[in-house]
Specification:
By secondary structure, the protein is mostly beta strands. The protein has helices at about 70, 75-80, 115, 135-145, and strands spanning about 1-10, 15-25, 35, 40-50, 60-65, 95-100, 100-110, 125-130, 130, 150-160, 160-170.
Length: about 180
């Protein structure tokens, strides 16, 4: 495999990596695999298969790699706490997709903050806190800029051609994840 791109990647499930690596050819079981450079140095951890590894009209299948440099500053926290030891970002519980230059709500976490606030699949996100947003990364950064988990996030949505404003009481994503059973 070879690196074919290094660019921002915004995941529809509320995360952004500024300088993700993209490799080709794609491999369907790449998640968790080591990405090693020619000198034998670990440069990243395989994350997912992606159909648009390089922006543009041509579909180029590849894999997205999380650069190891993102893990170095937090590795001790991950080993100790299982997560970075800082206040969690606000999480809305929305799966948002970019389609035809729009941010469409493709799904909602059952019982999650957005569902409880009345967001519906098919809604189009127009703005956050009175400011317009274009693109997934801009949406997530605008939400995160408002504060930590628990912050109320005002969203402007387009629903069936009309503007709808919702106030979402954000949460910590970790509070909604299934926890391991401990003896």
């Amino acid at each position: 495999m070879q690196v074919i791109a290094k660019r921002e990647f915004a995941g529809s499930w509320e995360y952004v990596i500024d300088d993700a690596l993209f490799t080709a050819p794609s491999h369907p079981k790449w998640s968790g695999a080591a990405a090693i450079d020619r000198a034998g140095k670990l440069v990243g951890i395989g994350s997912l298969y992606i159909q648009q590894a390089v922006p543009g009209d041509e579909q180029i299948d590849g894999n997205m790699i999380v650069p190891i440099d993102l893990l170095k500053p937090i590795i001790n926290e991950l080993l100790t706490y299982g997560r970075p030891n800082k206040p969690p970002r606000p999480w809305l519980g929305m799966t948002t997709a970019e389609a035809d230059d729009k941010l469409v709500i493709a799904g909602l976490a059952k019982g999650g903050p957005a569902q409880l606030a009345g967001v519906e699949p098919g809604d189009i996100v127009v703005g956050v806190d009175g400011e317009p947003v274009v693109g997934l990364a801009a949406l997530f950064r605008a939400v995160w800029a408002l504060g930590d988990a628990g912050t109320v996030i005002p969203l402007v949505l387009n629903r069936d051609g009309r503007a709808v404003t919702v106030q979402i009481a954000s949460a910590a994503r970790d509070d909604f994840l299934k926890k391991p059973r401990r003896h």
